[in-house]
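Summary of Year 1 activities. Much of the first year was spent building the evaluation harness for sequence design. The harness presents a backbone, in tokenized form, and records the residue chosen at every position. We chose the following record to illustrate the format because it has been used consistently in internal testing since the harness was completed.
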């Protein structure tokens, strides 16, 4: 199909298209999980330099990966209503500027992490960036309906990156955070894919609802949500977190299960997008509970 992209209408000094190229809402969620990983890595307050520079480096690398994703997906984005106003399909930016912008962000991120944090975090962040922008976006996304399951590994890395930024090592508890985000990713994206099934089908992206139908996707969302509920109990069971976290995991998990059950058994109008939106609230609430649980004893000790 002919490229439907319009000529760029970039206005010099207009920063807005570059900001949108970074997918700020997605990056904010990734950085939040990285910050929680940092805060959980040590018993008290985190050292300020790796905390600030680690957050900055991980954020810049995530934004670079998002910008490259825009470049690779520009033609499909131009044919979908959900994405046709993004910077490249709308003509606000061209490929050359977008790639250059992504390269600058990536270079800055690697320099900050390698020079100001530690080499391990820089190497893992680089691998995650390539995993998302190249392995997932360029290959997996168009190769298999399990794209988001395998590709979800890149999106699950920020808590591990945050942890290594503070300690310089990969800890089992950091891998548990990775596992939670990894299991959360399929029901999160499949709910969106259900809502936008016709758009994905129109651009030949083999999302699960397109290749295997709506009913099987709803069942998969339910099963993954049940598995997620079980996995989120592990931080309490292994002594990583306490009762405050457990209450949050059970409460948010029960609500997520309710959404997934309604989607599977009742298929109410609009339930797919409601499940997608709640999945974001769920992840923020779960990681927020981890953070509160971690610092509550310290706060109570200071108030005593």
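For this record, the design step produced the sequence shown next.
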């Amino acid at each position: 199909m002919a490229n439907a992209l319009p000529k760029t209408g970039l206005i010099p000094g207009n920063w807005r298209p570059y900001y949108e190229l970074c997918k700020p809402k997605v990056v904010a969620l990734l950085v939040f999980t990285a910050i929680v990983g940092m805060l959980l890595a040590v018993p008290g307050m985190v050292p300020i330099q790796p905390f600030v520079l680690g957050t900055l480096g991980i954020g810049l690398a995530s934004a670079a990966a998002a910008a490259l994703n825009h470049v690779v997906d520009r033609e499909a984005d131009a044919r979908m209503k959900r994405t046709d106003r993004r910077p490249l399909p709308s003509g606000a930016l061209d490929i050359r500027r977008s790639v250059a912008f992504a390269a600058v962000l990536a270079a800055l991120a690697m320099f900050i992490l390698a020079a100001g944090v530690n080499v391990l975090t820089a190497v893992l962040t680089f691998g995650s960036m390539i995993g998302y922008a190249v392995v997932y976006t360029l290959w997996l996304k168009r190769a298999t309906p399990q794209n988001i399951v395998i590709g979800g590994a890149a999106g699950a890395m920020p808590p591990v990156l945050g942890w290594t930024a503070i300690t310089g090592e990969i800890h089992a508890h950091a891998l548990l955070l990775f596992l939670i985000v990894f299991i959360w990713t399929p029901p999160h994206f499949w709910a969106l894919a259900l809502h936008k099934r016709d758009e994905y089908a129109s651009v030949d992206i083999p999302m699960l609802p397109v290749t295997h139908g709506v009913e099987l996707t709803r069942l998969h969302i339910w099963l993954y949500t049940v598995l997620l509920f079980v996995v989120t109990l592990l931080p309490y069971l292994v002594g990583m977190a306490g009762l405050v976290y457990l209450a949050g995991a059970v409460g948010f998990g029960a609500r997520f299960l309710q959404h997934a059950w309604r989607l599977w058994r009742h298929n109410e109008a609009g339930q797919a997008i409601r499940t997608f939106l709640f999945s974001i609230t769920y992840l923020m609430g779960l990681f927020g509970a981890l953070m509160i649980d971690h610092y509550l004893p310290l706060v109570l000790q200071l108030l005593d």
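The first helix runs from residue 16 to 21. Quantitative recovery figures across the full test set are reported in Table 2.
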